[in-house]
Amino acid sequence: MAALLLLAATTIVGCRIADTDAVTPVPQLLAFLPWLLVPTSLALLLTLLARWWPGLFWGTAVLAALTWFVAPQGDGGGAPTGTPLAGLRVLTSNVEFGNGTPALVRQLRRWKPDIVFVAECEYTCQARLRRDTDYPYRTAVVAGGSTGSLLLSRFPLRATDGVPGTMGMPGAVADVDGHPVRLQLAHPMPPLPGQVALWRRELGRLRDFAAADTRTPTILAGDFNASQDHAAFRRILAAGHLDDGARLSGAARTASWPAATAAVFGTQIDHVLVSRDFSATGARFLHLADTDHRALVVDITLHQHRP
Hints:
The protein is of the alpha+beta class. It has 9 helices and 12 strands. The longest helix has 18 residues, at 53-70.
């Protein structure tokens, strides 16, 4: 049994080291990489009880690699040093086919974010947010089910083409106190068995968006259906010179999904990614009734760009 546990853990850790998401079931298991510490520790105990010394060495190596990846790795590209220009609060939420809209309205009234990214916001969700919130600017993919998505803003918006995908991913450029900021909602398909290629392709489109303009301040937020342990997600960060707002705020491993168990078991697949023109503080994960995702609120500050 110890050998089987170590073989499974070694396969997943090996893919993480090799910077690949490979094929099913690797992408699904990579999302829960920190939890591999449990079976790996069990295997290590079994090798010790059985006095299987090669297995003990093997298990120790796997456990060390896991610990390295799970431990905090710093704050990305470092804090910007330019003059602060504007502070803003960003919220992202997947309301699960619109079911979590009433709870989202309450959180919007409480936290008063300046920019809101809402995934799976179908017709009734969009109508409710238009009626019950006071955001003067918005852009949306108007559709039913999981395809509908919405951007809300207290700053003027100029809609863009967004990113094409199976589910709606609208985009815009916001005028934040006279400074253009690119906004893009992320909601690629999840890496379900048989759909990993589609998941990888849609994350690749988000990577292309991030890489298309690395000089304009950028906020890329939403339900990425990917964690920091997925190579396809890390390539978005690298291509766009982006940092994860939760990581910058010291909450890199706080789970956002599934909401029902996130306090004790889960993974962080909802993110607010920002270009290095921004500093970030105070990430908060909020429980919303009737949706399987926690919402994420991050306070960010736009700084003057320095070459």
